[in-house]
């Protein structure tokens, strides 16, 4: 199996991530979703060529710091686990830049209350998914991730429209549904390529909470402010 490049072992009821998997030197894509895995071995760092890693729908409590050593990683999906914090973001401030090729980062439906201040180091990001967490704010430093084109921050605890998003000029779909946002800030007019804006189930008091600047979004096709 040493020449294996793609491995999918989704929905196989395994509860232990075998260390053997960490010694497949040519593996570039690994999917191990919908299982019962509670932790990842430190040896995960040995998957030097791994580019796409999906570990969604397991029972992980944290992501090990060794993930930061997967320098070729482009896609990391860890949705629907029991993560309480992101070790890889909060404990490795000096090394998070090693994930410089990461393009898609999805950690949804957890209990995360902070993204930390290290995400701006991931400057190749083009897609982020942090829906269903307990985020109360988005760090202003996110504005440095100028390549982001898709953001899902729905079903969190945001009370304000994140200023940082207004600097992501290439953003196309933006989902902020299911938060507690009371108004849309004028700066939204800076997101010139915005095509879809989801703001249903927030706390917009009236249609007047939607600024005139939104009319300058010439390419917007879908605006949802229902259930406010």
From TrEMBL:
InterPro entries: Leu-rich_rpt, LRR_dom_sf, LRR_domain-containing. This is Uncharacterized protein. It comes from Aquila chrysaetos chrysaetos. Keywords: Leucine-rich repeat, Repeat. GO terms for cellular component: cytoplasm. It holds the Pfam family LRR_8. SUPFAM superfamilies: L domain-like.
